[in-house]
Amino acid sequence: MSPIRIDELPCRQTDVAVIGGGIVGLCLAGFLAQRGRAVTLIDAGGSSASTANAGSLHVQMQSRFMRLFPQRVAGFEQQLPLYPRAVEYWREFERDIGADFEMKVSGGLMVAETPEQFEFLVTKSRRERELGLSVELLERGDLERIAPYLGPAAYGAELCANEGKLNPLRCNAQVRAWAVRLGVTIVDRCKVERLCAISPGFTLATTLGSLQARQVAVAAGPGARALMDSVGAFLPVEPEPLHMNITEAAPPLILHLVQHAERSITLKQLSTGQVVIGGGWPAKLAPGSDYPVVDPASLIGNVSLAQYMVPSLAQLQIIRTWAGLNSKVDGRGVLGEMPGLPGLHAAIPGDAGYTLGPLTARLVADLMTGRDPGVDMQPYSPMRLQEEELRALAGQ
Fold first, then answer.
1. pTM of the full structure
2. What is the H or E stretch that residue 240 is in?
3. How many CB atoms lie within 10 A of CB 236?
4. Do 379 and 261 belong to one domain?
5. Helical axes 353-368 vs 23-34, angle rounded to 10°
6. Which of 33, 168, 176, 219 could be disulfide-bonded to 55 (CB atoms 3.0-4.6 Å)?
7. Which residues contact 92 (CB under 8 A, 6 or more apart)?
8. What is d(CA 30, CA 39) in angstroms, rounded to the nearest whole number?
9. Domain boundary pick from 327, 352, 372
10. Residue ranges of the alpha helices (H) in the chain?
11. Within this chain, do residues 191 and 153 fall inside the same structural domain, yes or no?
12. How many domains does the chain divide into?
């Protein structure tokens, strides 16, 4: 569905304004419309996390996150039980809306090349089991049996059976069409420049005019920080530009979502046969812009590591490479009403946010419509960020 260029907002008032047209914003808008709300979704466009996503469905703790953000691991562990639930919710959501996301849950392998890396997986898997995940450790012989495509450097791995993948481009289009069928008004290429609290509700100043809403949900990823700042709220979301590649189509080869115990990489093969190579290699922000651009060093490093882990990838051509923006907070999602601003909700899912997208959108929709989410939402409350800010100020 192609966005329609317009010169002004199609409406000036709405029950709910959702800011951000990625997977979280689209799902949230659809869930709210199902519950009888008039919903306007506003999306600035550009290279959002969802449109640039590689389609991984993560469950186990990612070694990259643990290595780069050790101070956030304890917080991330509080959210870990949501991940297997989120993958199951993807199945339910796909079925409920009559879609086909080309979703496959065939397991995820985190590969070790050395005894030291394998010992890291032993420790990690022990902690994950304590937190309720189902994982197992595989030695070299096991890998040769279930993942013969891996190269000779593979020493062992951790297997998480409920990890998988989907086709994000197909998924995003189908979720958008579902939201439109439910009556969501989607305004593309429109930037919300600031928010203003009124009584009751909010005014949104946009590049296409002013919009009033009783409730607002901010699902704008890294753009959420400036929006919250404009209304005096604190939401320290940071952009993380990341790099991705995709190959030409090949016969079925890589059966799992593949990661590494120490180095940044994800590998997965779509049902179309193309292999998506990502996993956290850095991109850059264009000078004077918040738009991500490819870093040639990441292109070379990412692809080189991929063919080292799976030697047969060396025969394939890279047909596209791109960059996108991930959103960093503190290892946990920020989900719920902002302190002191009734009606203003954050919908920032946290690390591996695409995996968490539909589930966290439904949780926020429950909060916004007075339903019981069935999950303790306290660990994800925006209130914790305000408390942390006050503690930091007191310590200065």
1. 0.93
2. strand 238-249
3. 14
4. no
5. 30
6. 168
7. none
8. 8
9. 327
10. 23-34, 63-68, 73-79, 82-96, 115-130, 140-146, 168-181, 224-230, 296-309, 353-368, 383-394
11. no
12. 2
